[in-house]
Design goal:
Elements (H helix, E strand, L loop, with lengths): L15 E3 L3 H14 L4 H9 L2 E3 L8 E4 L5 E5 L2 E5 L5 E3 L3 H10 L4 E6 L2 E5 L7 E6 L19 E5 L4 E8 L2 H10 L1 E2 L16 H20 L5 H12 L5 H11 L21 H6 L4 E7 H4 L5 H14 L4 E4 L7 E2 L3 H8 L4 E7 L6 H15 L3 E5 L4 E5 L7 E2 L17
Parallel strand pairs: 1-2
Antiparallel strand pairs: 3-4, 3-12, 4-5, 5-11, 6-11, 7-8, 7-9, 9-10, 10-11, 13-16, 13-17, 14-15, 14-16, 17-18, 18-19
Length: 417
């Protein structure tokens, strides 16, 4: 292997350059001087091995909305985001929580109307709405899980319930992403949806990529050569393995409060394919669905019988409903349930009442165990919490917002960055 001059001496052991500090910029200028002496074939590898800690972009402060509808808070160099693993579902205590946050000073209410997002101090709990609560532990008498939370919380309200997330310091990479693309919510005219609404992860990536390129260009132009600056920008912003792509995925894990259409609940789009089951679902209940459209070649009488067996073992209080036909929801321990799974229905849904001890994370794990047992995708939806996620053991049809409720990768994935 050829000797690389930028690996000379004790400074080669510095793992990361903090560009917010004079020392970090000095190290980068030293690297730049050596970069031009490297063989052309070795330059890409050298740039890939260079770890930079960028300062936050000098943009918006306060309450911010991110591409896709998640919320964050920025105060100087401090950035708070919702911790997916902390999610708490609210059902029977919804009205008590509404009264408590209405009586608390310093609380912000955000409402998505036809003109965009509106920020204010007047209580709003209908449609697409959220509440910024500056001290979560004040509501521990209503929600005991909040007793150990030391900072703010974000509450997403739904027609029959709510979900609460603890706001925690964002890992440095996510804090950078928030500073690049967060748009300030301020009292006054609504913030139009075209400013923050994105069609999917690809559009979010494009938004982040352009912001990151501009930030790097502005920060590096006075410090290093064009050759190194362009190489670093390309490494950070181009392709599926780039920093911009990873940050876009991370923003997608955050709890999303708002959808582009103010008339439709955020993240519940998949329920449009289950109109009969959604209409029959009680206010404080969960839906677990199995359909031929997602199961594909695995769909068979045996799969439907296995689904019923799994429900009897894991969700015994549920009722079974065929998405087609006119039969009412049927208790699982009846012969009618066996007849229903033997019929040629294209979709089956279990409607299960929520227990007071149920949590979003616990329900996702139980639904995942059913999907693994069947070897086929299943849908879990809890409209009261805004939770709707399809779990696929093959990893091919994973859709929905389960990541925002602590399923899979979370903020800890960025802690080592």
């Amino acid at each position: 292997m050829p000797h690389l001059p930028h690996q000379d001496g004790p400074l080669a052991r510095v793992a990361s350059y903090d560009l917010a500090s004079p020392a970090g910029l000095a190290l980068l200028r030293r690297f730049d001087a050596q970069f031009h002496r490297l063989p052309v074939a070795a330059r890409d590898a050298a740039v890939r091995g260079l770890q930079l800690a960028l300062p936050l972009a000098a943009r918006a402060q306060g309450l911010l909305v991110l591409p896709g509808g998640a919320l964050a808070w920025r105060d100087g160099e401090s950035v708070l985001v919702g911790d997916p693993a902390s999610s708490v579902g609210v059902t029977t205590s919804r009205e008590a929580l509404q009264k408590a946050v209405s009586d608390q000073s310093g609380t912000f209410f955000i409402q998505h109307g036809k003109n965009g997002l509106q920020l204010g101090h007047d209580s709003v709990f209908f449609g697409q709405s959220a509440t910024w609560a500056p001290q979560a532990s004040l509501y521990a008498d209503i929600l005991p899980a909040l007793a150990e939370w030391r900072g703010p919380a974000m509450i997403h309200w739904h027609d029959t319930g709510a979900a609460v997330w603890e706001m925690v310091p964002a890992p440095p990479p996510l804090a950078l992403a928030v500073s690049l693309v967060g748009e300030a919510l301020e009292a006054g005219p609504p913030l139009p949806r075209f400013v923050w609404s994105v069609a999917g992860s690809d559009e979010c990536f494009q938004h982040l990529s352009s912001g990151l390129a501009a930030h790097l260009d502005e920060w590096l132009a006075p410090e290093v050569s064009d050759a190194l600056r362009f190489a670093l920008i390309a490494h950070w912003t181009d392709g599926e393995d780039s920093v911009a792509s990873r940050l876009a995925d991370g923003l997608g894990w955050l709890p999303r409060a708002f959808a582009a259409d103010p008339g439709r609940p955020a993240s519940l789009d998949m329920l449009t394919h289950w109109p009969r089951a959604a209409a029959a679902l009680p206010p404080h209940a969960a839906l677990l669905g199995l359909a031929v459209a997602e199961a594909g070649e695995a769909w068979s009488p045996q799969l439907r019988r296995d689904f019923l067996a799994a429900l009897r073992a894991e969700w015994p209080a549920a009722a079974l409903l065929a998405e087609s036909g006119s039969a009412a929801p049927t208790p699982l321990d009846t012969l009618a349930a066996d007849r229903m799974v033997r019929a040629g229905t294209p979709a089956l849904a279990a409607l299960a009442p929520l227990d007071v001890i149920d949590t979003p994370q616990g329900l996702l794990r139980r639904a995942d165990s059913v999907a693994l047992r069947l070897g086929a995708p299943v849908l879990l939806a809890v409209p009261a919490w805004g939770l709707c996620h399809q779990l696929d053991p093959a990893g091919l049809r994973v859709l929905g917002n389960g990541a925002a409720y602590g399923l899979g990768a979370g903020l800890e994935a960025f802690e080592a960055e």
